[in-house]
Amino acid sequence: MKLITAIIRPVMLDKVVVALEEIENFPGITIIEAEGFGRRLSNRFDDMLNPFKPKKRIEIAANDEMVDEIIAVLRSNAHTGKKGDGIIAVVPVEHAVII
Q: Which residues pair with residue 59 across a beta bridge?
């Protein structure tokens, strides 16, 4: 099992969720409000005052065989082609228990 974490632009969330729901046996999703910044490419005054940009953090715990499909959906539906589209990280889950 893997934990897929994606940081995306808030405006792309609806498109991403609709696409993920189309995956057969999709395991579910958690969405968290987030703020952050990556590599700084701008010296704009407003960016210096508040460098943090609003983001959405998506977390999906999925079986290993679903990971590549979920990543492909995230990449294709969260991509705008602009700097700051986000990042996807995948880490192993040693143990998970449904409450």
A: 5, 30
